[in-house]
Amino acid sequence: MSQYSIAVLAGDGIGPEVMQEANKVLDAVEKKFNVSLNRTAYPVGGYAIDTEGEALPSKTLLGCEQADAILFGSIGGPKWDTLPLEQRPERAALLTLRSHFDLFSNLRPARIYPGLESLSPLREDIAKSGVDVLVVRELTSGIYFGQPKGREGEGEEEFAYDTMRYSKREIRRIAIAAFEAAQKRRGKVTSVDKANVLVTSRLWREIAEEVAKDYPDVELDHIYIDNATMQIMKNPAQFDVMLCSNLFGDIVSDECAMMTGSMGLLPSASMNEDGFGLYEPAGGSAPDIAGQGIANPIAQILSAAMMLRFSMNLGDAADAIEKAVVATLEAGVLTGELLPAEQRENAASTSQVGDEIV
Amino acid sequence: MSQYSIAVLAGDGIGPEVMQEANKVLDAVEKKFNVSLNRTAYPVGGYAIDTEGEALPSKTLLGCEQADAILFGSIGGPKWDTLPLEQRPERAALLTLRSHFDLFSNLRPARIYPGLESLSPLREDIAKSGVDVLVVRELTSGIYFGQPKGREGEGEEEFAYDTMRYSKREIRRIAIAAFEAAQKRRGKVTSVDKANVLVTSRLWREIAEEVAKDYPDVELDHIYIDNATMQIMKNPAQFDVMLCSNLFGDIVSDECAMMTGSMGLLPSASMNEDGFGLYEPAGGSAPDIAGQGIANPIAQILSAAMMLRFSMNLGDAADAIEKAVVATLEAGVLTGELLPAEQRENAASTSQVGDEIV
Ligand SMILES: CC(C)[C@H](C(=O)O)[C@@H](O)C(=O)O
Ligand SMILES: CC(C)[C@H](C(=O)O)[C@@H](O)C(=O)O
């Protein structure tokens, strides 16, 4: 029997309750697919600050190092927003994990599920046009991590600066990830840049063109980031895979997520070159609805499916989960935020949705 | 009689034909308000490349220096897209003019006009919620102009870099512009940044807070750029003035423009500290529809109104133009892109719309 070990970092807000449902689903996978998915829970985020004094305790980092993958919930909340930035959950835990494990390849799918079009903030005809985008975001370089960064000077001339920086190697590996993904999808990569202004974007475009030569079956085009934010609204169905740098991917993936109108359904994967990865829902910790048993567990469950597919090569199990999710949506077992206001009394609870998927 | 001189740079694509209508309206203003608006036309953009060998000939720059304001059409097109980037119309003319005249304060209003909600790509209830946003974008600093910028290294480790850079003085003057604008509007400034990642954004936030102290009647809040692109889709009516750095303003203003669904109606102003400014439509040169007499001249005409208001202190004349535009829209004198497909045969031409506004 294949054995895998998973570091489970549930975190704050709705993290623990949606993680419980993902665990139920992983239990079912163990039985049905005869694998062993050993899970160990570790503290992270605000909860870890409260109990251990820091957002990413060393025992958590060590546990992640020993595992085959990290299943991540969500972190942060108003309680920890007044801490100095470097100690806050998002930076101290999430950005540190990304960079520590070199999780450069961030996949963020966003689709509008048939039947759920009315949740989209877009006009009905656009929402119904068949929207299914995969944002492939570079996650460990660019202006997030580029050096130097700092403050200098005095008085009104004091200035702050950040460095956007990309090497050919960094661009090439994320471009390859995008083309590989596009081959398994609709065969189209749209690379997002600002090549009319940024030198990094020109190198980005150059390398994207080079990589494209190895994928003659995939079409490549380029779009400026400002135009991309427009086209996502006007005609999102034109996009298959969107290849983005760290900052532009942050922006584009959030706009794509919002466009679906159902953030609670969207998973994400952040992987390195060895297949190790961190898998987390696209949405945040939603402290306002935490602890009420009404949060949607699907994003967490689909994140677990991505983990099985990409870090454990258990594509069949991932397929089974994804099919069960679609069946659950079609059966109308829906948490409140997916229902029109007048039908919210019929909403399923977090655990009812988990049970149905199991 | 007050006398003003205007450098008219019509440019490429639909630029010349919409400029003709703006000129008609300015002729009417001269008579009605007893002012003299002396206009001199200069070549710019692709047209200037073809006729003079460069996108911003020195006689054009000199003409702009001698004028009280620049009324700008639009530039660029496929014909000049294969030129080296530094020679292309957008960079060689537009970015050079912005920086030469220190046009740091870029105002880009975006509103959904009552009656035109169905043009918006947003869901009807959102489009009808009363959307009227002013994006105030810093235009002469940030990552567009920050030094150093370049390429270094060899082989796969060769890297490119850009510098995002802001001084306190640069942030303060654009923040003041945003607060001044908010005082005349609905009293709310939303500052857009990525302060959880960028040092420049932290300084941005710090100075925005300092400036806010001088405007106790204006409310200030902060939003991350990724969340901003989501909120613009989900609930754009929450925004009054959005204060943005150069790059984030490029993105936010285009998303706001698209959200209205009527790019042909949106003007913009780019001003320096002396009240000198460049006024141009938000949309591009639209080479695909150029020369057919079907382009919407309203964005150009409203740009002329902004010019009268901000560079010539002719608020009454600007008000009169803006009222005439609303009346024209209400009267249904509309170019084709504002009409549903089945009514396009009743579309007004570029010059009919201009005449109606006159
Ligand atoms: C929390 C923040 C630093 C993070 C980012 O900008 O990457 C988040 O927005 C995300 O997209 O995962
Ligand atoms: C043409 C381009 C350089 C320019 C910019 O990015 O500023 C344009 O997108 C704009 O917004 O005016």
From TrEMBL, chains A, B:
What is this protein identified as?
A: 3-isopropylmalate dehydrogenase
Q: Which UniProt keywords apply?
A: Amino-acid biosynthesis, Branched-chain amino acid biosynthesis, Cytoplasm, Leucine biosynthesis, Magnesium, Manganese, Metal-binding, NAD, Oxidoreductase
**Source organism:** Alteromonas mediterranea (strain DSM 17117 / CIP 110805 / LMG 28347 / Deep ecotype)
**What is the role of the protein in this entry?**
Catalyzes the oxidation of 3-carboxy-2-hydroxy-4-methylpentanoate (3-isopropylmalate) to 3-carboxy-4-methyl-2-oxopentanoate. The product decarboxylates to 4-methyl-2 oxopentanoate.
- EC class, as a word, reads oxidoreductase
Give GO terms for biological process.
L-leucine biosynthetic process
Q: Which family does the record assign? A: Belongs to the isocitrate and isopropylmalate dehydrogenases family. LeuB type 1 subfamily.
Isopropylmalate dehydrogenase-like domain segment(s): 5-357
Enzyme Commission number: 1.1.1.85
Pathway entry: Amino-acid biosynthesis; L-leucine biosynthesis; L-leucine from 3-methyl-2-oxobutanoate: step 3/4
Task: State the taxonomy lineage.
Answer: Bacteria, Pseudomonadati, Pseudomonadota, Gammaproteobacteria, Alteromonadales
How it assembles, according to the record, is: Homodimer.
Q: Please state the gene responsible for encoding this protein.
A: leuB
Compartments where located? Cytoplasm
Q: Name one GO molecular function term.
A: NAD binding
Task: Enumerate the residues binding NAD(+).
Answer: 77-90, 284-296
Cofactor remark from the record? Binds 1 Mg(2+) or Mn(2+) ion per subunit.
Which reactions appear under catalytic activity for this entry?
(2R,3S)-3-isopropylmalate + NAD(+) = 4-methyl-2-oxopentanoate + CO2 + NADH
The cofactors named for this UniProt entry are:
Mg(2+); Mn(2+)
**Residue numbers binding substrate:** R98, R108, R137, D226
Can you tell me which residues bind Mg(2+)?
D226, D250, D254
**UniProt site (Important for catalysis):** Y144, K194
Q: Which GO terms describe its cellular component?
A: cytosol
